[in-house]
């Protein structure tokens, strides 16, 4: 079996910098037309000038054979100014602002401590500039169970935010629960949307402990119960325009994952399209795959859809065990396993 679809984009991607960037960028550039690049570097990308410089670095690392376009984001902090949002919009290369609640995930220590207390003027300016807010939707209160953090975030931050600023464009990134899927479905189309990762469509939380601790399945928000996975699959495969592809591909050097305090993030760029295709096929919804991978995202962001195509072929292939690079190696999701769908340029 073979499918030809409009070239997809990745609306949530970590490309890192330095040697790691060099090692991973081609895996995204080989399949995707554009990527919304996350700003959680060390130090984070908090200014327009840093984002412009980071974009140049990425473009230099993209293989010459690819016209992959990085779409940049700004990392929101307690001290981001409305002026910075104006500058970001004027730059023409920054497409969104990213909210990391301080302490919620990898490199989020400089994130926001009090969204309503510290960031309202910035959020109001974002409405003016039609600049979307991308949210890592988890509260960080240590008394809230890690499996409930997304739902509590919706109730205590997202819902009030949308009520207060109904015109703000918001993307709830990497949704993991039935609650998030239902919430996004209840919001106004074109104003609130969600990205969905391959791992939250194909794995449930058992995958963290299958045969022993599985650090390469550890990401945030953490994998949830099977009922949540099923709810997300049905929302995504229903063809609802509010959901689109965002891999959250988040490479870490192997030693950073396989240690006594391993970091969160799954490197899925090499397998993402293969897994999305599998999910839609199993749901009997291959006819809806292209909208999810290639139409809903650009339509939400007000960007043109890609013109070129890619081919998805049902062809068994083996995921490499690892990708070696100058500082070590990166273990991809489903390392060493056999997958069914293979993506290629036309
Ligand atoms: N998803 C993750 O588990 N990790 C991401 C950060 C993020 O997207 O939350 C990373 O940067 O490694
Ligand atoms: Zn996140
Ligand atoms: Zn991410």
From TrEMBL:
It is an enzyme of class 3 (hydrolase). Keywords: Hydrolase, Metal-binding, Pyrimidine biosynthesis, Zinc. Pfam families: Amidohydro_1 (PF01979). The keyword Ubl conjugation does not apply. Signal peptide: none annotated. Its EC number is 3.5.2.3. One of its GO terms (biological process) is 'de novo' pyrimidine nucleobase biosynthetic process. One of its GO terms (cellular component) is chloroplast. Residues 10-311 form the Amidohydrolase-related domain. It catalyses: (S)-dihydroorotate + H2O = N-carbamoyl-L-aspartate + H(+). GO terms for molecular function: dihydroorotase activity; metal ion binding. Pathway: Pyrimidine metabolism; UMP biosynthesis via de novo pathway; (S)-dihydroorotate from bicarbonate: step 3/3. It comes from Cephalotus follicularis. CDD domains: DHOase. InterPro entries: Amidohydro-rel, DHOdimr, Dihydroorotase_CS, Metal_Hydrolase. Belongs to the metallo-dependent hydrolases superfamily. DHOase family. Class II DHOase subfamily. It comes from the Eukaryota. This is Dihydroorotase, mitochondrial.
């Amino acid at each position: 079996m073979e499918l030809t679809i409009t070239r997809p984009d990745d609306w949530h991607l970590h490309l890192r910098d330095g040697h790691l960037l060099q090692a991973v960028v081609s895996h995204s550039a080989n399949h995707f037309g554009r990527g919304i690049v996350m700003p959680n570097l060390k130090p984070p990308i908090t200014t327009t000038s840093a984002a412009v410089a980071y974009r140049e670095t990425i473009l230099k690392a993209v293989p010459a054979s690819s016209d992959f376009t990085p779409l940049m984001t700004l990392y929101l902090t307690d001290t981001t100014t409305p002026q910075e949002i104006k500058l970001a919009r004027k730059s023409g290369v920054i497409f969104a602002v990213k909210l990391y609640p301080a302490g919620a995930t990898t490199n989020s220590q400089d994130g926001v401590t009090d969204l309503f207390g510290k960031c309202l003027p910035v959020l109001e300016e974002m409405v003016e500039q039609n600049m979307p807010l991308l949210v890592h939707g988890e509260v960080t209160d240590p008394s809230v169970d890690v499996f409930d953090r997304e739902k509590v975030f919706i109730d205590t931050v997202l819902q009030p935010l949308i009520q207060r600023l109904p015109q703000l464009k918001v993307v709830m990134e990497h949704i993991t629960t039935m609650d998030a899927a239902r919430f996004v479905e209840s919001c106004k189309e074109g104003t609130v949307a969600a990205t969905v990762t391959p791992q939250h469509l194909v794995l449930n939380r058992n995958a963290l402990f299958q045969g022993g601790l599985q650090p390469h399945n550890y990401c945030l928000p953490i994998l949830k119960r099977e009922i949540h996975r099923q709810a997300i699959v049905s929302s995504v495969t229903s063809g609802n325009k509010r959901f689109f592809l965002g891999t959250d591909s988040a490479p870490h050097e192997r030693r950073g994952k396989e240690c006594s305090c391993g970091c969160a993030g799954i490197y899925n760029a090499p397998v993402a399209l293969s897994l999305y295709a599998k999910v839609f096929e199993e749901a009997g919804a291959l006819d809806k795959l292209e909208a999810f991978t290639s139409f809903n995202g650009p339509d939400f962001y007000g960007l043109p859809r890609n013109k070129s195509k890619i081919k998805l072929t049902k062809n068994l292939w083996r995921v490499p065990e690892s990708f070696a690079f100058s500082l070590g190696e990166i273990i991809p999701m489903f390392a060493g396993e056999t997958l069914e769908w293979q993506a290629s340029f036309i």
